[in-house]
Amino acid sequence: MSAAPILEVHGLSKHYPVRKGILFSREVGQVRAVDGIDFSIGEGETLGLVGESGCGKTTTSRLVLGLETPTAGDVLLEGQSWQSLSGQDKQDYHAKVQAVFQDPWSSLNPRMHVGDIVAESLRIAKWGTRAEIDERVAALLVEVGLRPEHARQYPHEFSGGQRQRIALASALAIGPRLIVLDEPVSALDVSIRAQMMNLMKDVQERDNVAYLLVAHDLATVRHMSEWTAVMYLGQIVEYAPTESLFEHVRHPYTKALFSAVLPDHPDRQEEGIVLTGEVPSPLDPPGGCRFHTRCPFAMDICSQVAPSLTESGSGHLAACHLEE
Amino acid sequence: MDSAPVLEVRNLHTHFFLRRGVVKAVDGVTFSLRRGEVLGLVGESGCGKSLTALSILRLLPQAAARTVEGSVLLDGEDLLAKSPREMREVRGRRIAMILQDPQTSLNPVFSIGSQLHEALARRPDGTGRSLRERAVDVLRRVRLAAPEQRVGQYPHELSGGMKQRVVGAIAISCAPEVMIADEPTTALDVTIQLQYLDLLKELQSSLDMGILFITHDFGVVARMCDRVAVMYAGRIVETGPVREIFDNPVHPYTRALIASVPKLRRKTGRLRAIEGQPPALSDLPAGCRFADRCPHVEARCLERYPEAVSVGESHSASCWLAA
């Protein structure tokens, strides 16, 4: 890890109980949405979190945001455990970890002026006088490529790309150390995505803020992040510096994700592993390696023993028996 | 590829008449689709690609929207001249449609089987088999696992990918000549998306359908399409064979769209973004609609709209610089 970690996640798990019956309900199982993951993010760095729907990447981002209480494990921000925080400290945590969500149509309150949306976190934190806050809001809008007079307009007056800029301005307002970006460009049009990605990179360089980028598009992750983690059924199966991962994929599931990427030219298609079937239910994940039911290289050991993450130089981790 | 087109859209104009003015959402769209061909209609949201599809099927969203000019020929018959009753015979039977979100295109209170029966009952196959047998059969054709059990299940019991296969089964149940697929894989996961695209290709060649594939993703275009039509602000700005469009894009908008996507194979530096926004469809400029975002803009671009000119083998573009 090149920079000092802002965020550390140790053995993080989130299990949701599944109940049956109404009056005398009993627990019949647990959905293991996130099941013992570790990662860290350095100051001003980006970690890309990749996986299919249901792999637990959104639950992970909610745990990091402090919107869910972990079943086990802990989240440490600047060395301080989230579990140990209370009262004002918890509020400070929320100020330091902000979020930009996928859909800028539902993440902005339609009844609030853009200026009030951006200023909300400043008001809650009693950041300054009214005039100071107005000045800060104007500066933030300029920083994300909008104009100060936009503060008096409503979200519906803006396009999707502009709304996502407003969401970013409001996340930046209080000066966070980490921003969770949950599919920040996938709801935007192709021609607008590049604008937004460039803006996020510029902001990171200027404010030295770290990003946890949750995304399913591998090219976006390669472009945006220094580190990449691949999740499958609640666990991290591969975790490496982005360039190392994209140059030399180690885990079969990551290989399969690469094979599923659509070509950038009609004469090119990634050949390789084409997965059949669908992701098993996290309610009853397969024993051993969770990927063995779909893995073309599965061996006997894979259904019995869960592989642990092993390193192969320069911090490139993968959890696969083939790699041991 | 020289066969007569099964679907021909000529100079189609669909406008919204609102109190604040006329919104020219589709403003002179012309293309043709042959049997056994996949034509990609590519563009951003609001460019009019979905409305073009709805205009073909005459399913315009509200009273304010009207097709004011043009023709839609299915095997030479003008669909715009048909009565509502005749149109009902076309929809689903001769032109099928697959929408983006399988969650909303299936009815949550009916079983998979009964939703298939509805489509199958309209077209007896003459073998005297029961609807149930035929439903299982068509589910097998879309490669849905365990079709015998699926007919009794409800949409909520199926995953997104499985639901979209059911939608595909309903679409092919009447062996249509044309299928319109409006971003059918946008809501699916990447590994499921590839499986579904391959399924559509397979169905297309076995049924000899023409597919109009609406998308904004050039990856989908590269995988699926034989020809491409790029749409911007209500008009087609460039059309050509898929390899021509990728190797030799002529219109600055097409070029910029392809360049703005980050690459998987190498680390990209700063992305070449297209600055600005598309023009408002209620207040379109007289000249080229891409002019205010175009890096090569000249005086004549602002004055007159460029006519489509041929720039290669069945490849044309609407740009003054290509002329």
Provide a quick synopsis of the model:
The complex is a heterodimer of chains A (about 325) and B (about 325). Chain A is of the alpha/beta class.
SSE blueprint:
The complex is a heterodimer of chains A (324) and B (323).
Chain A: E1 5-20, E2 26-42, E3 46-50, H1 57-64, E4 72-77, E5 80-81, H2 88-96, E6 97-100, H3 114-124, H4 130-143, H5 160-172, E7 178-182, H6 190-207, E8 210-215, H7 218-224, E9 227-232, E10 235-241, H8 242-247, H9 252-259, E11 310-311, E12 317-318
Parallel strand pairs in A: 3-8, 3-9, 6-7, 7-8
Antiparallel strand pairs in A: 1-2, 1-4, 4-5, 9-10, 10-12, 11-12
Chain B: E1 5-18, E2 21-34, E3 38-42, H1 49-57, E4 65-74, E5 77-78, H2 84-90, E6 95-98, H3 102-105, H4 112-120, H5 131-141, H6 147-150, H7 160-172, E7 178-182, H8 190-207, E8 210-215, H9 218-224, E9 227-232, E10 235-241, H10 242-247, H11 252-259, H12 299-303, E11 309-312, E12 315-317
Parallel strand pairs in B: 3-8, 3-9, 6-7, 7-8
Antiparallel strand pairs in B: 1-2, 1-4, 4-5, 9-10, 10-12, 11-12
